């Protein structure tokens, strides 16, 4: 079991590639065509090609869009393209002179994946798959990130990451809508962070992942819970709360049916470990 602020060791894993024998066409995303049933965006493909997708008929390949993987804007915010790979994000974060920089590597390591996954899996793909244990959801939700979504008619809308993922495997994308990027504001990049991850085994998928972010300006504290819940839950406190207030806030924010229940941990265990990890973070950042 892990509940530590240190990055978990990488697991030796292979990238399983499955033939998608129902796909009859692959289109370049730079040359738009009307969206139709059976279409899907193709980023890194680590999920699409990992299991049968009998509903698919056409893939719209984002690989040649040429989007800059990560860029820091003059206002200090960070824009992460949907096509940015985990390896690219990890490498970029190593050169960041910001307080929250260590959190990027910790969340990248939370994949517990091989170098094959690191070099193919994308930030956007991890968000759109919307798995509770998706560490890019954990990272961007904890830093109060905002997604940029583009519809087929070109209309744009922005949705906070905490509202983008609505449940296990569910998000707010409409048919044909594209996740273009995620922007993290400068104010959260300046926060001191604390990271706790818990798994049933040393190299297992995250059963609990809790992140704290403390503002250097006013002492405000944000606690973000993922992996143990079916959707990301971010709780903001104007000042560091007491242990009792923190526990009550988490209990109120997460409904009984929102604790995950699968092979990676029972709801009761996830709830207990969430409270434990959150309290460790509260003490660390206080």
From TrEMBL:
InterPro entries: Diverse_Substr_Oxidored, FAD-bd_PCMH, FAD-bd_PCMH-like_sf, FAD-bd_PCMH_sub2, Mopterin_DH_FAD-bd. PROSITE patterns: FAD_PCMH. Residues 5-189 form the FAD-binding PCMH-type domain. It comes from the Bacteria. This is FAD binding domain-containing protein. It comes from Streptomyces olivaceiscleroticus.
């Amino acid at each position: 079991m892990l509940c530590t602020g240190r990055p978990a060791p990488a697991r030796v894993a292979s990238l399983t590639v499955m033939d998608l024998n129902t796909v009859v066409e692959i289109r370049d995303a730079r040359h738009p065509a009307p969206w139709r049933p059976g279409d899907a965006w193709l980023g890194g493909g680590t999920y699409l090609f990992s299991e049968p997708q009998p509903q698919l008929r056409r893939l719209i390949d984002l690989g040649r869009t040429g989007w800059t993987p990560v860029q820091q804007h003059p206002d200090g915010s960070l824009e992460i393209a949907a096509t940015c790979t985990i390896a690219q994000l990890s490498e970029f974060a190593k050169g960041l002179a910001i307080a929250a920089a260590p959190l990027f590597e910790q969340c990248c390591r939370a994949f517990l994946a091989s170098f094959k996954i690191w070099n193919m899996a994308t930030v956007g793909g991890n968000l759109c798959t919307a798995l509770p244990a998706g560490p890019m959801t954990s990272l961007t939700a904890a830093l109060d990130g905002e997604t940029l979504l583009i519809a087929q008619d070109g209309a744009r809308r922005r949705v906070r990451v905490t509202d983008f993922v609505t449940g296990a495997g569910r998000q707010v994308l409409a048919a044909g809508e594209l996740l273009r990027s995620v922007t993290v504001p400068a104010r959260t990049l300046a926060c001191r962070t604390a990271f706790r991850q818990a798994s049933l085994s040393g190299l297992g998928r995250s059963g609990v992942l809790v992140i704290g972010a403390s503002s250097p300006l006013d002492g405000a504290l944000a606690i973000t819970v993922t992996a143990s819940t079916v959707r990301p839950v971010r709780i903001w406190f104007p000042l560091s709360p007491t242990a009792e207030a923190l526990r009550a806030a988490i209990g109120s924010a997460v409904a009984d049916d929102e604790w995950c229940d699968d092979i990676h941990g029972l709801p009761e265990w996830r709830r207990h470990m969430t409270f434990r990890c959150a309290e460790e973070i509260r003490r660390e950042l206080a």
